[in-house]
Amino acid sequence: MSGTTMRLLAAAVLTCATLGVQAANQGANHGTHHPTPRKAAGSVKFLKAPSEESPAARAKRLTRECKGRPNAGMCLGYASR
């Protein structure tokens, strides 16, 4: 390696080391940092999609689609009807 490359590499290593020490010192000041208070979480509302099928319509569809199929997965409980 040339002399210029070695100097640049040394400068980069020193810069990284200095930044690491500064970050460690900032974390050591536990009593001086006051975090901002968090807001309480709001309630979540789930809206039904207009294309969503009703439970009765789903049962009817599965009974129709699962005839003669293996009784597994979505057809579990509907294939034997």
Short structural summary:
By secondary structure, this protein is mainly α.
What does this structure look like?
By secondary structure, the chain is mainly alpha-helical. It is built from 2 helices and no strands. The protein is elongated.
Average pLDDT metric: 77
Helix content: 40-55%
Please tell me what the overall shape is.
elongated
User: What percentage of amino acids are in beta strands?
Assistant: under 5%
Topology of this protein?
Layout: H1 3-28, H2 55-65
Notable features of this structure?
single chain, 81 residues, mainly alpha
